[in-house]
Amino acid sequence: MHPAPSVIVFTALSGLGFGLLAFLGVNIPDVTGMTAFIFFFIAYALAVGGLVASTFHLGNPQRALKAFTQWRSSWLSREGVFAVVSLCVMGIYAACLIFLDLRLPVVGIIGSILSLISVYCTSMIYGQLKTVPRWSQPLTPFLFLAYALTGGALLSGQVYLAAGLMVLLMILQYAHWTIGDTRLAAAGGTIEAATGLGHLGKVRLLESPHSGTNYLLREMAFEVGRKHAVKLRVIALLLLGILPCALLVLTTPGHLSALVAIILHMAGVFAARWLFFAEAEHVQALYYDRHRAA
Amino acid sequence: MTTLPQSTHKKLGLAIDLDICVGCHACVINCKEWNTSNYGAPLSDQDAYGAEPVGTFLNRIHTFEVKAADKPAQTVHFPKSCLHCDDAPCVTVCPTGASYKRVDDGIVLVNESDCIGCGLCAWACPYGARELDAAEGVMKKCTLCVDRIYNENLPEIDREPACVRTCPANARHFGDYADPDSNVSRMAAERGAVPLFPEQGTNPVNRYLPPRPKADIQTDGDIDILAPFLDTSGASNSASGPSSTTAKGLLGWLDKALEAI
Q1: Which chain A residues have a beta carbon less than 8 Å from that of B131?
Q2: I need a labelling partner for A109 at 20 to 30 A (CA). Which of A244, B26, B202, B259 fits?
């Protein structure tokens, strides 16, 4: 799949933002007043920034409000609804905490749960797609939630919790890659199955429907970077887990080490999310004889 | 509403005969002509007369070669357009309700004034039947020529989809699959047509009539005297269309940098 920057920024930043909100809602860290304002500002900047980025790839963003209507069937619509509701609930919690020094624990807990549900809905936009076997594996929602919680723990300054979650995240990410590599074959993803001509023999594309490229190939037959997948996976694991984990555990906790760890982790999140899209094989590209097993 | 109807009164769709299609692309052109000038936004082209033309089409013809171990290769021309699935995944993923399946005749349509152009329905379709128009930013797909089939301003003979009407080989047929006695239902039953890519669970309405068995041609050695001189080792990838494995700009730099590690 085409790794569009807007979608990578959307899923990565909003995941981190809602992850931080999930921690703030259960009073981690225990802050009020100006300090609370800074934490909530970061969380909202990430979550809202991500959501705004997601509108950049729309063909007609001026109609984006219509996307809140189909929550009964569409995960994309649900994601929008839950994101707005959780931002509103957390807004009430944050305002009371910052301006009135008043803690509303029930509102905070509800806000935390709603934030995590938003992340779950984001993951299901991809996890629901049978056409992209690498995404439609059961681990996809767990992976997105693990990214959100790890980022949230890191941003809320929970040094050892963040380190532990990073280890868990790396295991999940590795498993998602490994299982993902087998998914296309498991889904019967061959040109013979797609064309229904397998009973006649081996099938290959003799002539493409068009001599140039088109929307289908640009959007759903992305192959750049596949050959570097292993290197990129190692780089992603180093950045999102191994390096920040080592930094947090081996140095005395402070603002500088935390900042460096966050920057490293976010770079890793972007690398891994780029791979999430770039490596994903869409079955419609089988009709173009792509995704042939090496 | 993007929930799917429990059932539809009619199941209008196409029967596409893979045995007869000659791959002339006339249906592609007539589809484009009719649909760019009638219902909805036009099917735009970009750089139409330049070096890298691209455009929106609702119907495309792939040409495959099928080869059994002990038989000569067989060419199969494969027209591909929306299959108007009963369990259309493109409909349920739509966040705005723009994508819908009609209860009356089962046609899957896009209400363009509600479409935000997010592209998720194209991602959900296993057949590559939906294309986002680059000029209008809305999703385009086969309408089964909904503005022809009920159009009383047209002579009755023209009240069928443009691709069916134009096919010079009579490889495309239009009818109601809900009626077991319709032309398409009978054809599908006689020829043992199966749904396309059933692994995807879409329950398509359109049916493909498989190529009929070919008579065996006996060959003594190579038919083509040039065959021994041709390098066919990389043949399987040569027809895959334009390559997308090389990148320019930032990606190209990343590509080289990663190569160097």
Answers
A1: 214-216
A2: A244
